[in-house]
Amino acid sequence: MKKLSPSLVAVKKLVSTVPRSNFCDRDLEKVARLILELGGLINPIILRRNGMDAYEIVDGDFEYYAAAKAREINPLKGETIGAFILEPENEKLLLEQVKALRKSVITENLVENSETDFFEENTSSQPADSIKNPVSLVEVGNSCENETPQPSSSLEQRLTNIEARLENQINELKADYTSEKQVLLQRIQEVENSISQQLPLLIESQLANRINELRSESPSEKQALVEANQKVESVTSEPMSLLSALNTLDKFKLSANLKDAGLKPQIIQIILKERDVRPFVSFANVVERIKGLTDKTMIKIIDNWQKYS
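The structure assignment produced for this chain is given below.
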């Protein structure tokens, strides 16, 4: 038989049938940090292979959960745990050693507990591998520090452990949220500062580029621009036609011009009302729609408009 030596096994490959709530979260936290500080566990757990790349814990559930907690705190340092793996050639002797060691540290409370059945000697009707989850060598009861010890089956104590664990996780989430919020606010402030610094430079650069473009324009382009401006000015400077004036000129100005042409106030009011209904399309349309307005009067209005425009 080869010499017995512990192996390093990835914590994520281990499975425990004992609920984590059986153990106080503060105790697990304490041992987890000791594991990280020491760089390992002084009490290797005992495993049985449970497939190609998985292991079931035979002894050392507390140590396992402490190692799992260490992995949560620091995934790099807490990635593996020391363990003895049961093999066909050493399983019987290893379990007998576990049984003997546990008898030396068992407490009175645990002696009275039904778990003492795990320490009875194997018979032909009970193989050695039936010993499952004996008490850990680490003397950790099922209660937190300064609390009255309770049996591992105590529902009240398990609920207390679960509550403490949830409270710790909530506090961790709050701390993470506060930290992430602070980082986000800092990042937003940095972006705002960067924008406030770069925006004037960007505007100045764009203006400089536009000025250079205008300076580099060819004489023909400048001449075309001047001619286009002259055309616009000539169009806008032309006097408004009488027909356009009848449709769009300010009411007071139009009334004054029509009054100078000799129109009666009643006819002027009819013209103003009719143009609000729909625009006049021709002088003939004006005569047709305005009652009391004759062709001669319309011609007189046109002559008067051309005279003063």
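Interim note for the steering committee: The chain has a mean pLDDT of 77. Residues 7-138 form a domain with the Conserved hypothetical protein from pyrococcus furiosus pfu- 392566-001, ParB domain fold (CATH 3.90.1530.10).
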